């Protein structure tokens, strides 16, 4: 160590000192304050909000044949969809419905981008509702930004409290409506008044309410940007002829404020760099930077840009629904429509149409009665009086119709088969009945060992209500 260092002199920056750089693994969230905008797409978005919530909140209150029209009764293992009653055995229809939804999403995305995300996704719908409440209580975009920067005061406290109370009320009613699809809504309301919810009902009301409150009130665009898997695989469904919200850079660039553009002698683009398209975006992106996975296709930027173009006397459509090929090649609307019928769209349409046809056809020919045959394992086949061979079964009859029926049971496959009891069996509406049945064959009928037979179930009051099920009749070896 030299004398200067011994006297406490500072070493050179490169000697005796380690420099550290802070590397953030996660980007800090920047608060987004979407600006309210009016326009045709904003009106369409609110129409979708109204229709989707009318269905969601309204369906649990509709009655059908003396019961709730749409009810998923997990305890009784019955799913009621208006006049249709489904049982766990009908899971195939649920699978078909999910396939229809998946291919429908693929088709709509390939044609028109993320229209589902922008107009009907629950995250978008409830975020719109919560932001509307926020604007009514806290004010415009600038007022909300100013309020958040202010220190706490009486005015700030009551506005924030009122907003969160309103959010909580909407979220809890949403959770209540969700549970109303699984427990009859007209039974939930008296329980609400008496604070007598069951533990599971209370759990799901609070859980779904908290999820709505957190996602739509706090997380908002974070759900779309980081949690939603659809944003990640949408590129696999897009192509250059898919309709997307796009900025026409050829027309808009170079962008500059209107005052400078007036002096540019025609060298400026139509974009005046007002950033209104960024201010109205619910995910906070700049659409002028091109297609981004965070864009949900809500077209708020289209309404904002059109309003600016109207004010400065220029044509609408600087930001518009178009395709990448149409923007780059300056294609007219007729060419965009012609490219709609491309192979991908035709394949998706064909598959979706086939699945919908099979789904509708299977429901149309569906018989509202089911029959399951269970052999009595304790009696494989025995000889009773006069050499008669008897087998014992248990028949499970499921009447999925909403009215009761009387059924007669018969058996075929061996000559002279007799079924006891011989009288008709009464099965109430949407009920399951387990019936012990004895089947007898005369001496010498059938072959030793197992013989294939078939049980027939026929409703006395409806000739079309008929079902059959295979079984095995055991004849002891002679």
UniProtKB/TrEMBL annotation:
UniProt keyword annotation of Repeat present: no
Bilayer-spanning residue ranges: 44-62, 91-112, 165-182, 202-219, 345-365
InterPro entries (UniProt xref): 4Fe4S_Fe-S-bd, 4Fe4S_Fe_S_CS, Cyt_c_oxidase_cbb3_FixG, Electron_Trans/Redox, FixG_C, Ig-like_fold
Repressor keyword on record: no
First and last residue of the signal peptide: none
Record-linked SUPFAM superfamilies: 4Fe-4S ferredoxins (SSF54862)
Domain named 4Fe-4S ferredoxin-type: residues: 262-290
PANTHER family named among the record's database cross-references: FERREDOXIN-TYPE PROTEIN NAPH (PTHR30176:SF3)
Name of the protein this chain belongs to: Cytochrome c oxidase accessory protein CcoG
Organism whose genome encodes this protein: Herbaspirillum robiniae
């Amino acid at each position: 160590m030299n004398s200067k260092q011994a006297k406490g002199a500072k070493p050179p920056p490169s000697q005796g000192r380690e420099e550290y750089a802070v590397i953030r693994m996660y980007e800090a969230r920047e608060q987004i304050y979407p600006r309210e905008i009016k326009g045709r797409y904003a009106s369409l978005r609110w129409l979708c909000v109204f229709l989707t919530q009318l269905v969601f909140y309204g369906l649990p209150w509709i009655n059908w044949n003396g019961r709730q029209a749409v009810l998923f009764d997990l305890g009784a293992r019955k799913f009621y969809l208006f006049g249709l009653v489904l049982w766990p055995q009908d899971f195939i229809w649920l699978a078909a419905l999910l396939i229809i939804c998946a291919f429908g999403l693929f088709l709509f995305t390939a044609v028109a981008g993320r229209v589902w995300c922008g107009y009907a996704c629950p995250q978008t719908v409830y975020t719109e509702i919560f932001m509307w409440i926020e604007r009514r209580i806290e004010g415009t975009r600038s007022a909300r930004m100013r309020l958040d920067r202010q220190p706490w005061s009486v005015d700030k406290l009551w506005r924030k409290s009122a907003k969160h109370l309103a959010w909580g009320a909407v979220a809890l009613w949403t959770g209540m409506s969700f549970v109303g699809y699984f427990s009859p809504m007209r039974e939930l309301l008296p329980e609400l008044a008496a604070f007598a919810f069951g533990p599971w009902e209370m759990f799901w009301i609070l859980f779904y309410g908290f999820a709505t409150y957190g996602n739509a009130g706090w997380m908002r665009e974070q759900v779309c940007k980081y949690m939603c898997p659809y944003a990640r695989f949408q590129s696999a469904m897009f192509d250059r002829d898919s309709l997307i919200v796009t900025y026409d850079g050829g027309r808009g660039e170079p962008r500059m404020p209107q005052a400078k553009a007036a002096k540019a002698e025609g060298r400026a683009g139509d974009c005046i760099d007002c950033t209104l398209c960024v201010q109205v975006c619910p995910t906070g992106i700049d659409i002028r930077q091109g297609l981004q996975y965070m864009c949900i296709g809500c077209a708020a930027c289209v309404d904002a840009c059109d309003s600016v173009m109207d004010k400065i006397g220029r044509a609408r459509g600087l930001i518009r629904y178009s395709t990448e090929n149409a923007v780059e090649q300056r294609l007219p609307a007729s060419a965009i429509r012609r490219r709609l019928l491309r192979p991908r769209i035709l394949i998706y349409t064909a598959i979706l149409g086939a699945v919908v046809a099979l789904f509708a056809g299977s429901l149309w020919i569906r018989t509202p009665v089911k029959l399951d045959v269970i052999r009595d394992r304790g009696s494989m086949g025995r000889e009773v009086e006069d050499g008669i061979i008897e087998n014992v079964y248990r028949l499970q009859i499921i009447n999925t119709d909403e009215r009761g029926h009387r059924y007669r049971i018969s058996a075929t496959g061996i000559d002279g088969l007799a079924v006891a009891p011989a009288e008709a069996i009464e099965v109430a509406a949407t009920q399951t009945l387990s019936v012990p049945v004895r089947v007898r064959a005369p001496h010498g009928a059938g072959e030793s060992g197992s013989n294939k037979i078939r049980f027939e179930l026929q409703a006395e009051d409806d000739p079309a209500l008929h079902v059959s099920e295979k079984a095995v009749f055991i004849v002891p070896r002679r």
